[in-house]
Structure formats: C-alpha cells, structure tokens
C-alpha cells in the first residue's frame, strides 16, 4: 500500500526537497505525502524505484501516444543520437515531420517547430498579432493553454474575481504581468450568444480567438459545434484569426479535432504526441499567414522566431516515427480502447449506484464523481463547492488505483497509449467496480 511500502520514493523526495522547491520542477507530478518516483518505463507499464509496476494511464499528460520506449521510437532516437544531436543548421529530419503533419492536418499547410506546447500557443498568438496588427486575444475561461502570460489569463480565476461574463474581463494569473489581462477577452464555454456579442463588440481590435475543443479543466466535455461555428463565423467577419490549441486534442482524430469537428482553423498550436515523447511544440497554419508572418527572406520576418532547440533532430526523428506509427488503424484501435474504458467505468458506477459522470473522447477519458455540472468554468467551480465529497471520492479512487497497479490522473482522468491491451482496460474496469463499491460501503 502507498505510501507505506515506498521507502525509495520517500528518500528521494526528502533529498529533492533540499534542492528543489516542493521537490520538483513540475507541480502536476506531486501528490501527498510524496509522489511515487519512476525508475523504468516499458510499453504500457512504469515501474517505480521501489519495484512496483503499474499500468500508465497518464502517459506523460498525453505525449506518450505509444507508451514507454516503443522499440521503433527508441531505435530512431538512438540512430539520430549517434548521427547528429544538435546543430545550428536546418536538417532533413524537420522537413520530414513537417511533411507528415501538413499531410495529416488539412488546415496546416506550413509549420514551425518549438519545444513545448506553451511555445506553440505563444507563437500562434504572436503570429495572429503580427498578421492582423491587432492586440486582443479572446479565450475561454478556465481553459489551460500553457504558461505564456496572455494564454494563461483566467485559467484558474478565483470566484472573488469573477466579473459579469458579459464584460468578458479576464484575470492575470499570479506571476504574470498585470497587463496581461488587459489584452484578453474572456468567453464562457459554449455560450454562443454571449461569445458572439463579445467578439462583435471587440472585433476591430481582435487579433484572434484561441480555443481548445476539449478542455481538461472543464471536465473533458467538448466545445459544442454551435459554439465553434459561431467562433469561425465571427472571427471571419471581424477579420480576426481562429486559433485551435490542438496540443492535447490532436488525439481526438487522425487529423486532430478539426477533422472530426469539420472546422478549419487559421492557426493551430501543436505539441505532446507530435514529438514522439521528446519535448516539442509547433505552430501551423495556412501558407498565406505563416509566410506573411515568419518568412525571413527579403529582410526580417514580421515576427521573429528563434530558439536554440527548435526542430532539434532528436525530437524530429522520434516525432516522425511516432506519427507514422499512429496511422488510421492505430487511431481507431486506440479510440476503441477509450470507448471500452468509458463504457466499463459508467457500468461500474451504475452497478454501485454511484453518482458519477464519464466524459472524454477517443483516447482521453474523464471520470467525475458528480452528476451534471454545467458547461462553464463557473458551473464546474460551483458544482465542486456544492459537492465537497466529490474531491474525497476522486482521492479514494486515485489511491485505490495506485495500490492496484494503475497510475491514473489524480483529479479523475485516463490518457491511453497504443501499448495498452483490452485486458489492461478490463483490469481498470474491475478495479473501478471495487473502488465504487468500497465508496458505497463507506457511505453506508
Ligand atoms: C491544451 C494545452 N495547451 C498547451 C499546453 C502546454 O503544453 P506544454 O506543457 O508542452 O508546454 C498543454 C499542456 O498540458 C495543454 O493541455
């Protein structure tokens, strides 16, 4: 049982605390009293330093589409590492990954690489501002788009700072420049008419609307087709750009969420799975916009885009192999595993008479210990306040899984990899039956 039989993790955490605040470089990896430290990854499994092996259902917050150390990805990295690791010259490896992604994403005719999703989003925002000569960005309240000051506005706004949604006023995140919020208009997820009013009102100053069609912080419920259609229509009418953040949602379709939803964005931010597990980010879009903004021939590009590690050959090589392996057949199989898990979790909840909602799409699965909680960040926050036991149940569920060979996202999510099998999915479902029934017994 965790944490009792994990002395190795405890010792590492105590050592880490001396040299890193909170013991880490990434707040999402912490859980009390200390996180489990990983030693080895192999396919669908990760083994911790105390020798406990678990099925990995986080997959590095989505980046490991083929699980750990896929032999072909490892071979590509090893080959590239022995040939050329970093260089201040372009390489064929980046053309190859660019060609693969442009062929796959209909709205992406040209692309530029960076090293994180944060940078991909940031470059998309800069490109939109450079292209339109305008300042304002509109985004959805509660949507996480990485750590850039503009993109981070109103990601987790405290209720005391909520203003009238019709004003669309944002809140700078702690640590961001206080001016960031003045550059951002805040929309409420799936509020079609409210969003339309705000975009019309600020249209002349609006550079872009930034949207993630499946926001994790909003419980993995998808943006409605009507909301996305409104964004497409109104940005076009205003002469602003539509940016899709597909850092996460690329998992929703072979050609990303845009293919499934039938929306064509002007710019798309990418990251995670396109790097084959190595650090990556990218911005892509129409040749007209990308060339106008980033093409340095004939003087200086409108928006400068450097980066010591941009399009580094190791990431490019891993990304190309990984995306090639993630073909339509692999995509369909993985989505089938996602469907199996969603169905099994819903049945487990229902068998125990539990109040729970299973959400997500394709290889992303959300599990929330509440019934309907509305569409927006505010609806979700209110539902959490009204259901304090939901957090306790999520904690119980996470601990149960951790003690029974499954590493899931603590707030209640599962991100799948192609390394998983139906038997792995069924293991989680069986454990979900046990976890729900323990919760029921505890409540009685
Ligand atoms: C939708 C979305 N955008 C951007 C990011 C930032 O990506 P990165 O962590 O690679 O900076 C994330 C990361 O989780 C994300 O989920």
Bound molecules: pyridoxal-5'-phosphate
From the spread of the alpha carbons, the general shape counts as: globular
Percentage of residues in helical conformation: 40-55%
What sequence of helices (H) and strands (E) makes up the elements? HEEEHHEHEHEHEHEHEEHHHEEHHEEH
Total number of domains: 2
Tell how many strands the DSSP assignment holds. 14
Secondary-structure arrangement, i.e. CATH architecture of the largest domain? 3-Layer(aba) Sandwich
Give the amount of beta strand, in percent: 5-15%
Task: Report how far apart the termini are.
Answer: 24 Å
**CA-atom Rg in angstroms:** 22 Å
**Which structural class fits the helix and strand makeup?**
alpha/beta
CATH class category label of the largest domain: Alpha Beta
For this structure, the CATH topology of the largest domain is Aspartate Aminotransferase, domain 2
Quick summary of this structure?
Helices cover 41% and strands 14% of the residues. With 444 residues, it is α/β, with parallel strands linked by helices.
Question: Could you please describe the fold and organization of this structure?
Answer:
By secondary structure, the chain is α/β, with parallel strands linked by helices. The chain folds into two domains: 176 residues, Aspartate Aminotransferase, domain 1; 255 residues, 3-Layer(aba) Sandwich (Aspartate Aminotransferase, domain 2), CATH 3.40.640. 41% of the residues lie in helices and 14% in strands. It contains 14 helices and 14 strands. The strands form three sheets. It has a seven-stranded mixed sheet with strand order 4-10-9-8-7-5-6, sandwiched between helices. A four-stranded mixed sheet has the order 1-2-3-13. A three-stranded antiparallel sheet has the order 11-12-14, covered by helices on one side. Helix 6 packs parallel to helix 7. The longest helix has 24 residues. The radius of gyration is 22 Å and the shape is globular. The model has no long low-confidence stretch (mean pLDDT 96). The protein binds pyridoxal-5'-phosphate (PLP). Pyridoxal-5'-phosphate binds next to helix 4.
